Amino acid sequence: MKSKYVFPAIIERNKISGKYTVVFPDLPGCAFEGEDFIQAYYWAGPRLEYHLYRMDREYEHIPEASDTSGWEIAADAVVVQVAAGLPEYRSMFGPKFARKAIGFPSWLFQLGKKDEPISVQDMREVLREKLGIDMLLENAHDLSEVFGNEDGSF
């Protein structure tokens, strides 16, 4: 698994809506629209990173980038090379907990009710509250929960 990728994208103005469509031909399903060329180009990198992160998370094969020299594109379209790095995504949206063994005295677990001893989840919640940890991104399993769209689109 590489940590840096570069893929070609085609940016083309939609004649009907006037928006700019970005398509990554090597990555089916990786496409989106921007209001203008600048927005489309600006969001191409984050969208590529998100798409590659999801492929990585689902153990899908990430292909090599195509050679664009033989591509036939529309006269008003442009091919750009878009870079993406996955380490930042993995650290932000990867596994939520470091698996570490922590020893607690047995009396601490016995403080709960007889039929409902204190659970690890209860302790985690108390620690979060005590430390004032912001839960927004910690609870998001992926960007679809942050951005609100199931496919991760913006």
Span between termini: 26 Å
What is the CATH third-level topology name of the largest domain? Double Stranded RNA Binding Domain
> Biggest sheet, in brief?
4 strands, antiparallel
Order of helices and strands: EEEHEHHHHH
- Topology, number of strands: 4
Q: What ranges have pLDDT less than 50 throughout 5 or more consecutive residues? A: 136-154
User: Structural class of the helix and strand makeup?
Assistant: alpha+beta
Number of domains: 2
User: Which oligomerization state do the chains in this entry correspond to?
Assistant: single chain
User: Helical region count?
Assistant: 6
CATH 2nd-level architecture of the largest domain: 2-Layer Sandwich
Strand order of the largest sheet: 3-2-1-4
Strand content: 15-25%
The level of helicity is: 25-40%
Per CATH, the class of the largest domain reads Alpha Beta
Which word captures the global form?
Answer: elongated
